Give the backbone structure.
Amino acid sequence: MNTTGAATGDPRHARAPTTGQCRRLALRSVRGAVAKGRDFTRQTLRDWGWDRPESTEDALLVVSELVTNAAVHASGCHELVLTAGEVLRIDVLDGARTLPRSRAVPRPGVPGGRGLHIVQRLSDRWGSYALATGKVVWAEIEASRLATGRPGPKPRPPVR
């Protein structure tokens, strides 16, 4: 490990952060929410020692897609929450109670409709649930994947 606590390129030195560690980023009415969410996630993964390029890019793309979906379909993202444990849990809270539905097949040549397919492919699990004031759309990436950079298992269908 280097002096910052981040893992070096040697997977034997990879470590998971303290289980249950959580970081929150308020994004309600924030301009550039997607970029801010990506920067926040990149720094958090680095702080937690999960900064292997192969898996970090997957996590950053999942965050981008979830925050973008909240902006486009739910009048904006209210908060991004990252929680560490056996998995990296990514929660995006918004103000709409309508749960997301993945299109059966994105239409070729038509923009949009691919975000949840990307989330499903890059995360190990994802789903959503309603709150009194909106909803949470979440995704999980196995900690072992983040620590080693190795690809994860084939994605499973969403849990609702």
Q: What stands out?
A: Helices lie at 33-47, 53-73, 115-122, 143-148. The longest strand covers residues 134-142. The mean pLDDT is 82.
